[in-house]
Amino acid sequence: MAADQNAGGGGGGGAGSDEPETLGGAWAAKLSQHPGAVQDIGVDLTAVLGTAEMKVSNLLKIGRGAVIELDRRVGDTVDIRVSGQAIARGEVVVVEDHLAVSITDLVKKT
Q1: What integer is the mean pLDDT of 33-45?
Q2: List of long-range contacts for 21-28, beta carbons under 8 Å, 24+ apart
Q3: What's this model's pTM, rounded to 2 decimal places?
Q4: Would you state the pLDDT for residue 15?
Q5: What's the pLDDT tens digit per position in 49-100?
Q6: Alpha-carbon distance 34 to 29, whole Å?
Q7: What is the DSSP string of the chain?
Q8: Distance CA 63, CA 31 (A)
Q9: Cα of 28 vs its chain's centroid, Å
Q10: Rounded to the nearest 5°, which phi and psi values hold at 61?
Q11: CATH H superfamily, domain 2-106
Q12: Separation in Å, CA 103 to CA 39, 83, 84, 86, 90
């Protein structure tokens, strides 16, 4: 997925900038001076479809065929996380026979 190439920074070009908004932002500019420094480091991306909370007693009863209702509805955005940190939101799509996420919004650090 192309998003993991840019993981690591906070802002981007934003409004009024010639650069497209990316996750790399200022980091990308600095790293471009040292292209091999960290760009080949792999990161694991996680797409969070939703969450559920349950008691341990109910968890112990789960078996094949059990259905766990999540806190999101069909069509809601999913969170994209790297190392537990939300970096983006997106929509679930199908690419050939694989699930994928189309990025709709980048999470801005405050």
Answers
A1: 77
A2: 21/106, 22/106, 23/87, 23/88, 23/106
A3: 0.58
A4: 45
A5: 999 999 999 999 999 999 999 999 888 999 999 988 999 999 999 999 999 9
A6: 10
A7: -GGGGSTT-S--S-TT-SSPP-S-HHHHHHHTTSTTSSTT----EEEE-------HHHHTT--TT-----SS-TT--EEEEETTEEEEEEEEEEETTEEEEEEEEEPPP-
A8: 48
A9: 18
A10: -90, -5
A11: SpoA-like (2.30.330.10)
A12: 21, 18, 17, 12, 4
Return the structure tokens found at 56: 């341990």
Interior/surface letters 37-52, b for 16+ CB within 10 angstroms, e for the rest: eeeeeeeeeebeeeee
Query: Could you give the count of Cα atoms lying within 13 Å of 84 in the half-sphere of its Cβ?
Result: 0
Write down the domain spans for the chain.
2-106
Rounded to a whole number of angstroms, the CA Rg of the chain reads 18
Position 104, amino acid: T
Tell me the two tokens of residue 47: 């797409």
Tokens of 16: 């009024």
